[in-house]
Amino acid sequence: MELQAIGVQHPAVRQVQHIQNNTAPNRYKLFVAEGLWAHNMLLSHNAPIDTFFWCPEAIYADEAHRRAEETAARAERAFRISLRTLEKISERDKPDGLLSLAALPRWTPRDLRFGRSALVLVADGLEIPGNLGTLIRTLDACGADALVLTNRKTRLTHPKVIRASQGTILSVPTLEFEEVAEAAEWLSSQRFTTYLADTDEALNYRQADYSGRTALVVGSERYGIGKAWYEHGHSRVAVPMLGSGDSLNVSVSASILLYEARARKSRW
Amino acid sequence: MELQAIGVQHPAVRQVQHIQNNTAPNRYKLFVAEGLWAHNMLLSHNAPIDTFFWCPEAIYADEAHRRAEETAARAERAFRISLRTLEKISERDKPDGLLSLAALPRWTPRDLRFGRSALVLVADGLEIPGNLGTLIRTLDACGADALVLTNRKTRLTHPKVIRASQGTILSVPTLEFEEVAEAAEWLSSQRFTTYLADTDEALNYRQADYSGRTALVVGSERYGIGKAWYEHGHSRVAVPMLGSGDSLNVSVSASILLYEARARKSRW
What we know:
Chain A is an alpha/beta fold. Chain A is built from eight helices and twelve strands. The termini of chain A are far apart.
């Protein structure tokens, strides 16, 4: 494969560094995919690949050679880089000689059509990227319709979100709202019953009604759900806490609620 | 408070480094607790404190001064250290001037007495400390009786296990078995019904029978449950996977199973 060789000074290399460090605007939701597993994911999801960086000296597996050719053919532009340049832009120990700038899908409320028993999770103010990625993985697994973000504190393009999502971020629809009121009104206009996950004055989550369309709101690791969500008259549901701790990990509690809703909707 | 001042060459300081880096045997299950939050946890759980290190120059909060005195009074031995020494042994940015070597409780099968509807989780070969800690936090929350470890790959004294457990590791009983057969026989002798969490040839987890005593086995992040667990005729239960991914995060799937068992046992 013949590709143009570029060095660390090339603007494409600098762009990767900006995306990694979040030091430039990123309106196309570009993220960095590294290594064989991530490239298999990009190719199988048909994700738009902006730039492909190929470092043949770092490739040992035959599969990686084949993926390199497929990725180069799919990418808007493709370059050859040295081991030294790869080390500058890679966050992994062994990126298998493959690194791409790819784009996350972008969704608007108009792209979504909900069925009678739709299921949506709202993540309000979540701070830890690994938690957000794990949540997206659960949303995929339980067949949820969308993830809605309010008071967003972590970006979806964060490497730890991508990794923890195990690639499901390429298929689970995500929407972000600037204002909680907007999100609440949109859910209401779509005939969702919205529950806030909160242990105070809450109904046991097994007793809640999950018929029709259901939206579940979970809050930040440190502060819970933001105040604005409490101004819309939504009911609260809680996973009972029977031990010495006063809360569950947020991606755990969201997953328990999501699967309860899914099981009840599907009459498992 | 007057405490003996020691420097980086002191054996107690070196011991902390060995524990942090896991470079010496640790038969008393010592772990490093850093900062105000961790010390509040030690004091409230009455955990045995082996050595307390006090760095007054790094203390800013009044509460930390009070905790320092309480911890020094409770510790087997207590020393004063400089900021420079604290930096050598601390893994945190701001350890609030408080660092202790404390001991995890140690349990044997004989310490445990099970009720009629006991609930136990077996973690086989789990590799990621954060997952193990998050699991322990869920075990506390759902009132489980114990965590059983087989094919242990990560130590309970790992700082990330302690942190993710949010202190619940001080109260949730944990048992380790050298051999899977030993664990399986012990559970059977205690009249547990054991289920393996596996998606192949498995029953939907909502259809399983959780009456009596229940043990749930989950496996490693990469390889699932080890072969030896399949030699005892246990049934398999699965959380249905409805999306593009083929698995859930292990602490998520374990939590969904644990709360299902708890809900059914408690008739929520």
